[in-house]
Amino acid sequence: MRKRKPKQRVIQPDPRFGDIVVTQFVNNLMFSGKKSTAFDVFYNAMDIIQEKTGENPHETWQKALNNIYPGVEVRSKRVGGATFQIPVEIRPNRRISVGMKWLIKYSRARSGKGIAEKLSSEIIAASKGEGAAVKKKDDTHRMAEANKAFAHFRV
Fold first, then answer.
1. Is the pLDDT score of 136 beyond 80?
2. pTM of the predicted model, to two decimals?
3. What pLDDT digit, counting tens, does each position of 22-79 carry?
């Protein structure tokens, strides 16, 4: 086990929107340390959102993330030979990172040409409360609700 907690790294805000959460999102989007490519993909997706909806793309993206952030999740715990799925509240920073990872995962799985196109489509769908990432959040909440009887086993 660790002797002490590691220091939190300082994340610089992105150049276009001046938002730290955008940089965090781009860090999750990045492959093989290619951050500039990830920023290009994200900004291209923002431009596509601007063209398609005519709304502020940064606000649309934030609205999409807020629709995806989960409130609870289930954790497995072994009690007396049986494994139970126990609903647990999610810490705020984990909530954000899980939501981002779901948005990226389901945008990559989408059909379309180019990751920027796929990402923009998933963001627009999520901002309307639709799409695979929002469905994942609803499924997670439904699973937590179904296993509410085991909440007394909390980790």
1. yes
2. 0.88
3. 999 999 999 999 999 999 999 999 999 999 999 999 999 999 999 999 999 888 888 8
Q: Where are the domains of the chain?
A: 35-153
Is CATH 1.10.455.10 correct for 35-153?
A: yes
Q: Which residue has the tokens 């995806």?
A: 68
Q: Which residues of 16-47 are buried (b: 16+ CB within 10 A; e: fewer)?
A: ebeeebbbbbbeebbeeeeeeebbebbbbbbe
Q: Centre a 10 Å sphere on the Cβ of residue 96 and count the other Cβ atoms it contains.
A: 17
pLDDT at residue number 155: 62
Q: Which residue has the tokens 């807020």?
A: 66
pLDDT higher for 48 or 83?
Answer: 48
Question: What is d(CA 139, CA 71) in angstroms, rounded to the nearest whole number?
Answer: 12
User: Measured in whole angstroms, how far is the alpha carbon of residue 19 from the centre of its chain?
Assistant: 16
Asked whether 144 and 73 are in contact (CB, 8 A), the reply is: yes
Q: Up-side HSE of residue 110: CA atoms within 13 Å toward CB?
A: 25
